[in-house]
Specification:
Elements lengths: L1 E8 L6 E7 L4 H12 L7 E6 L5 E4 L26 E6 L5 E11 L9 E6 L16 H4 L30 H56 L4
Antiparallel strand pairs: 1-2, 1-6, 2-7, 3-4, 3-5, 5-6
Length: about 230
């Protein structure tokens, strides 16, 4: 007999596959049929669970009743089908947990010369198994450790060269000395000339004072003679 199961992504309601399985095939065969139908690889761990009508997890078929691991290649499907619409849960890649809802939708006769399991209906595009992660290209700083933070090579420290423009006593020009002497000479001449002017001012001042005395004397004598000698007035 043939079990026709509908396998649907739990997170993608519009993506499902109908897979026909022989009743005597195992859950290991079922796992490979599901993964091939959706385009996933088969290298990760997985688990099958019995499920109720509300898609709640029941018994873990990868473990025995005592809790020890069980081999899926020894778990025959017909041993766990108890209802006309038996349900299972399939979780693939336990780190990511791709979850699938499995429901028995029909029991039919096998077709002659048909290999089982087989996917008889595919609806919707399955999501990508692996997300594409864009890794940034290594920066120039990582490729070339000799470069600085801005991708430039660090500057090489140079020793300071002695200043070549230092003036030595031997390099002083004689013309400069003559100019300085001339300036000093002019300044001394100005000072002497200033002192001469003051002397002339002193002479003029003394002469003026002497004139004032003579004028005052003559004026006084004149007044005294004119005013004192006039008895008529």
């Amino acid at each position: 007999m043939i079990y026709k199961f509908r396998v649907q992504f739990e997170d993608y309601d519009d993506v499902y596959r109908d897979i026909d399985m022989l009743t005597i095939q195992t859950f290991e065969d079922f796992k490979i049929a599901i993964l091939n139908a959706i385009g996933f690889d088969t290298v990760h761990e997985c688990a099958f669970y019995l499920s109720d009508d509300l898609w709640r997890r029941g018994r873990d078929l990868t473990k025995k009743k005592d809790g020890t691991p069980a081999t899926l290649s020894k778990r025959v499907i017909c041993d766990f089908v108890d209802a006309p619409h038996q349900r299972f849960l399939f979780v693939y890649d336990l780190n990511v947990e791709w979850s699938f809802l499995i429901e028995l939708i029909k029991i039919i006769q096998p077709e002659p010369k048909q290999n089982y399991p087989t996917c008889v209906k595919s609806f919707g595009t399955a999501p990508k198994q692996y997300k594409i992660v864009h890794v940034p290209a290594p920066s120039d700083d990582e490729d070339n450790p000799t470069k600085g933070k801005r991708g430039r090579k660090p500057s090489v420290k140079k020793e300071l060269e002695p200043i070549a423009n230092v003036v030595d006593d031997d390099d002083i020009n004689e013309d400069d000395v003559e100019v300085e002497e001339e300036v000093n000479y002019i300044e001394e001449a100005d000072i002497q000339e200033g002192f001469g002017d003051e002397g002339e001012d002193e002479t003029e001042k003394s002469a003026t004072e002497d004139g004032d005395d003579e004028f005052g004397t003559s004026f006084g004598d004149k007044d005294e003679g004119s005013f004192g000698g006039s008895e008529d007035y």
